[in-house]
Amino acid sequence: MKMGLPVLLISMLLFFVLFFGIGFLLNMILRMSWIMAILSPIVFIFIIDDVRWTEYFTAPGSSFAALQHKIMSLAPADLLILSSGLVGAICSGIAIRALRAKGYQMF
Known about the structure:
By secondary structure, this protein is mostly helical. Helices cover 78% and strands 0% of the residues. It is built from five helices and no strands.
């Protein structure tokens, strides 16, 4: 299914804002600047794959093969949307570090 340019741009913006906001809140609460940048690939796996997470431990061979097949079959638009989410998570870590360096104490 083709995705129009306005839909792609809005989706990229939404993923950026979503991951920036979640990352910013997690960074404030847990006081770890890069927690969302580390957790975002795990979230992406949950978004991409149809396999239940317990199957990665019970049947790792077939579940990782299915994950690799799903990742390789992603459309370029999907990759752009997911990468904008990762950029948002990284920007939240940068923003928190900059605010802490300037003396702002969150929680």
